[in-house]
Amino acid sequence: MKTPRQPTLAQLRAFVAVAEHLHFRDAAAATGASQPALSAAVAALEEVLGMRLLERTTRRVLLTQPGERLAARARAVLEAVGELLEEADAVRAPFTGALRLGVIPTVAPYLLPTVLALVRRRYPDLDLQVHEEPTAALLDGLAAGRLDLLLLAVPLGLPTITELPLFDEDFVLVVPDGHRLAGREDIPRSELRELDLLLLSEGHCLRDQALDVCREAGRPDGTPVTTSAAGLSTLVQLVAGGLGTTLLPRTAVRVEVARGGRLATGAFRHPAPSRRIALAMRSGAARAEEFAAFAGALREDLRPLPVRIAD
């Protein structure tokens, strides 16, 4: 079956110009085309559509009844094409349009103020949309295209994801006021073997990281750990109430310890246990260069925090 011929944009532009001016000379002047070229384009459009659009006389041009109806539709088509090209320009421009950022709960309250300030100051045309979810949900969202970029703890060890490291931060021991480790700056990791530890519930990557630290310190896997807390704020409240101790990433200490009251901290002996925070994107993402530039700008703005900026 023969494929029907399609009108070209040049033919539609020629027809709309003549329909607006009802004069080939004026239409040619408005479009920058020659009168013969304009006339040929309109004639070709009439052939494609199989109908006369114009009545040509020696003095003037008139629209036929079909021509009047199709002129309005041709204008709409050209306007839609113009809007498509404008949208393409906007998408092509970096740091415009929507950026769907996924953030883990143990990072969001402490880093989002810096992220939001950076976007307001440097990328005012960027529509930042923030989604706070556990790591597993964020990875599913990134793979499905629901999210564009993640802010979370790494390494992930996934070949389909490219990590853009931001910084490393130490873990700090949080204890009740008066605890024997309060204020210490050289706590050995071996202290974690016997402490009553309060950790986040299952599903939080920070819980897994803390358990890894405990295992590295020689804490037996069977040593009881309280896991009833769903967030860091609850953890520090439990510590303040004398129910045990916990580990916090250093970026969370100022906010959570000040909020909790009756709390003290202790620093581990070098090298302290730590975690790495990074941006993560799909490998080969179309906006990879933009995301890399965003990571670089974010590293600079994160320097005032108590972290070690990644190279």
TrEMBL record:
Alphabetized UniProt keyword annotations: Activator, DNA-binding, Transcription, Transcription regulation
InterPro entries the UniProt entry points to: LysR_HTH_N, LysR_subst-bd, WH-like_DNA-bd_sf, WH_DNA-bd_sf
Pfam families: HTH_1, LysR_substrate
Stretches assigned to the HTH lysR-type domain: 7-64
Keyword Nucleotide-binding: no
Highest rank taxon of the organism: Bacteria
SUPFAM superfamilies, per database record: Periplasmic binding protein-like II, Winged helix' DNA-binding domain
Family: Belongs to the LysR transcriptional regulatory family.
Descriptive protein name: Probable hydrogen peroxide-inducible genes activator
